[in-house]
Every structure is written in C-alpha cells, then in structure tokens.
Write the structure tokens for this entry.
Amino acid sequence: MLNLIAIRPCNVDLYDLLQPIILPNTSPNAKFTNWGQTFSCTPLAIFEPATELQCELILELARREGRVVRAVGVGHSPSDLACTTGYMLRTTKLDRLLEAGITLDALHAELAKHGLAMINVGSISDQTLGGIVTTATHGTGINYGVISTHVMGLTLLLADGSRVFCSRQENSDLFTASICGLGSTGLILTVTLEVEPAFRLKEIQQTIKFHECVRSLDSLVTASEHVRFWWFPAADTMRVSSADRTVEPIKPAGSWLWHSLIGFHVVQFLLFVARFILPLNIFIGRFASWLVSTKVIAIDDSFRIFNMECRYPQHTTEWAIPYQNTKACLHDLHDWLKREFSDPNGLRPHFPIEVRFSDSDDIWLSPSNGQKTCWIGIVQFKPYGFEVPYKLLFERFEAILCRHGGRPHWAKAHHLRPEKLRKLYPRFDDFTRVLESVDPRGMFRNEYVERHIFGKTGPAYHNRVFKRYAPSQ
C-alpha cells in the first residue's frame, strides 16, 4: 500500500488527489440530515472514499489542517452523533463484506450466500455495520448481548495514520473502547464478526393487558430466546413478540391491517390531524392497538423476523435500565401516563413504547455493562415530516428512567454530561484515557463527543446546535 507519510504530498497535491471523492457544494447531499429529519449540518467538506488509501489521504489532510473528521454511514442515528462542522467521511462506498460501510441489509444477503446469519439483529437493518458497532446497538433477548459483543476484531485507521488491528487478545483496551466508541477512537475499516449458521425464527405475536404483562414479566421474558413488547398506553395493552429458532418451513405472516393502506396511510393522516387536535392521539393509539390485536404466528429467515418497519420520520429516545428495575419502572411510567391522559391539558404521546432486553457485558461504555438490561424507547412520529411536540414528553419520560438507573442509548439524543456518565459507567475514565492516547489532538471528536465525553460547553457544543428545527416543542 502506498505510504503517505513517506511521500508527504503538499496540500495542493492532496486536494487534487481527493477532488474526485469530494461532494461538490452544489450537490443536494452536501448538507447532511439524519434519517429522522431531526438534526442537520453543513460540513466543511464531505468525502466519499471507496478505498483505504483514500481514507488515509483524508486523515493526512485533516492532520495538516487541524480539522475534525467525522465518519458517518447512512445517518440513522436520531441524534447529532454524526454531525460536524469539520470534515465528514461517508463510509457507504466502503461496503464490501465486513467493511465498516456495508449496511446490515447487504450483509444479510452476503452471509446468506454462505449459509450464515448474524446472531442477533435490532429492529432495522438500514444502518452500516460500523455504525451499530460503535454505538453498541442491540436487538432483544435476555441471554443475548448487544451486537458489539459479537465483534471479534477491528481494523482501525488511527489519527496518526497508522493502521491497527485490535481484539480481546491484541490491543485489548483499544478494542474494548472501540466496540462502543462513538466513532472517537479511530476510523473503523473492517469488522471481524461472530456469526452462526443461517436460521429461521418462529415468532408468535399476541396482545395482552398491560398489568397482566408486567405481572408475568419474568416468565414472558425467559420463555423464548428473543422477546420484546410494544406498549400502546392509550389502549393499556402490550403486544408481546416471542421468537425462537426453528427448522419449520417458512410461513410469512403479519397483521394485514397494520401493513396495509389503513395501517400506514390512514394512521399517518390521523397523526397529522392530531397535530392540531391533540386529544385525537388517544383515539389513534387505541385504533393502532386494534389494528394489531389478532394473534399472529410467522416463520421466516431470522433477520426478517428481527426487523420491523420504522414507518415515519420521528423523534425518539431510548434508555437502558437494570433488568431488576423493569417492573417498578413500567409501573411508574404507567402511572405517569395515566395522569397525562386524565388531564385535559396533559401530554399525548404516540405509540408504541418499545421494550426490549439484553444480557450483561463488559464493554466500557455499553449501556448493558455489568447488568442484564431492559431497554425502553418512546417515539413521537413526524407525519409527512411535520414537527410534533416532544421535548416535555421526553423530559418527563427520561426523568423516570433516570430514577431507575437509566443509561441512554448512545445513538439517541440525551442530556447527560461527563459528571453523570462517570457515575453510570465505572470504566468511563479508562475510555477517555484511551482517547487521549490514540487521538491526543481530537481529530475524531465532533461536537457530540466533546459535549458528552469531555464536557465542552458553549454555543458550539449545545445539544441543539444542529437541531434542524429550532422551535420544536
């Protein structure tokens, strides 16, 4: 491979070499907006490298000019985690098998050619492999860790231009920091991932009352390999999904009403109208619960069962609590929402509230570090992309989750700073120590990392600095 440090081209030569992979300012993609249409930024330049050599050139230019480099995949994180005023490096063309820029959709297809599959998958597969690794993205299953626990090794391009392999046996501190590193330890080039022979899942979905679900929580969560709940507060129901590995033949299924014209377009139209008639949200929540109320049994390839449709752009927040606090937390959330519904001026949340589970791990910044975990996420849809009130709803939701030991999902917007994060993560200072060691000048520290990990303050680091619509309520 060409050694850039040895040839040391001048900046003009670097610009010439990089020109083919720089998005022109006239391109509609020269401004970055995340999938949820909630955060946006205009980087100094956006690069779309297709080779490791081009990545090295980008970092060489950034070192010379003292710029920040932020790697971003498809921008699915519903926070400003990917935003920067420096250089943005899009990884979507680094998309060969197990390269960091490959999407999970593409990875599923490639693995299937070899009779293989990922061990666990989250609710969507739009994201890049590098993105899910660096945020400790999770699926569900009380005996299954976050997806980062399946990573066996990483190849990183560090801030000084060196290429390093790390694993639990080699450069172990760098590895443990990087598999939930928020993209701040270095540029992930390749991921060595533990997989298993391709398998099918048999999923049973049924609706039960909220209190019945909470009473039977432990037995429900442990009865199947992969269990998740969708809570419809307005209807006081829980949609329970239980999935296990099977050798039975494929039998796709689903709620026809939910996935049809009614389920998608009518619900979106009603959500739009409810922007002006807030009490309508209660009816919509009950209506949506009814649309999915029938018992459904489906058998399909694993990733098709794991995945679900995100439906509409949205505001969302998700927190992880110790599993032993789940019942108490759900009861507190239920009591709070009951008060909101009984108040004529109360908040009117959308649906559903998603409840998932993961095993404990030893990853320094993983929300499941040291504890079996329950993940609880709330959403406010943006029908047709229009804004909806969400800030006060999320503040009250997060206050309850914090009382129960909540740790925020790193890909989603949150308010915690180093002084609080340090109390939640025993190895937080080990993480920052690794960052100072491999990136002392902060090449990979964008505003999100500077704010949440290093405690930077001021207008440039405010949590709404990249907010797409400042007047959101």
Confidence is low (pLDDT under 50) at residues 1-7. The chain is about 30% helix and 20% strand. The radius of gyration is 22 Å. The first strand starts at residue 32 and ends at 33.
